[in-house]
């Protein structure tokens, strides 16, 4: 598979939450902490890829976070 997937956590200072930007269809997250965001993204990303695209097994997903500091990639 040559398609690349990503999930980006973006800090919304006004609402004090992390929101998501992603190219995984249906993945929409909003959490109070970055740790919670990462846990939810790691749980739901593979589930949605399997459900929407029939992709099973390990698929690399790039995680990033941005907001009030430099971008962090994992």
Describe the structure.
The protein has 74 residues and is α+β, with helices and mostly antiparallel strands. It has a single domain (5-73), classed as 2-Layer Sandwich (TTHA1013/TTHA0281-like). The chain is 27% helix and 32% strand. It has 1 helix and 5 strands. The protein has one helix spanning 34-53, and strands at 5-12, 17-22, 30-31, 61-66, 72-73. The longest helix is centred in the middle third of the chain and has 20 residues, at 34-53. The relative contact order is 0.28. The model has no long low-confidence stretch (mean pLDDT 89). Residues 5-64 form the DUF1902 domain. This is DUF1902 domain-containing protein.
What is the name of the CATH class? Alpha Beta
| Termini separation | 20 Å
Assembly category: single chain
For the report, how would you describe the main beta sheet? 5 strands, mixed
In the CATH hierarchy, what is the architecture at level 2?
2-Layer Sandwich
* CATH topology annotation: TTHA1013/TTHA0281-like
Residue-averaged pLDDT: 89
Write down the domain tally: 1
Binned, the helix content reads 25-40%
In order across it, which strands form the biggest sheet? Answer: 3-2-1-4-5
Any low-confidence stretches, pLDDT <50, length ≥5? none
Let me know the CATH homologous superfamily: TTHA1013-like
Order of helices and strands: EEEHEE
From the spread of the alpha carbons, the general shape counts as elongated
């Amino acid at each position: 598979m040559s398609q690349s997937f990503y999930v980006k956590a973006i800090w919304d200072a006004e609402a004090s939450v992390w929101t998501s930007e992603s190219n995984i269809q249906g993945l929409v997250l909003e959490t109070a902490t970055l740790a919670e965001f990462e846990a939810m993204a790691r749980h739901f990303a593979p589930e949605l890829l399997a459900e929407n695209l029939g992709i099973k097994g390990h698929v690399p997903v790039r995680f990033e976070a941005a907001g009030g500091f430099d971008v962090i990639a994992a």
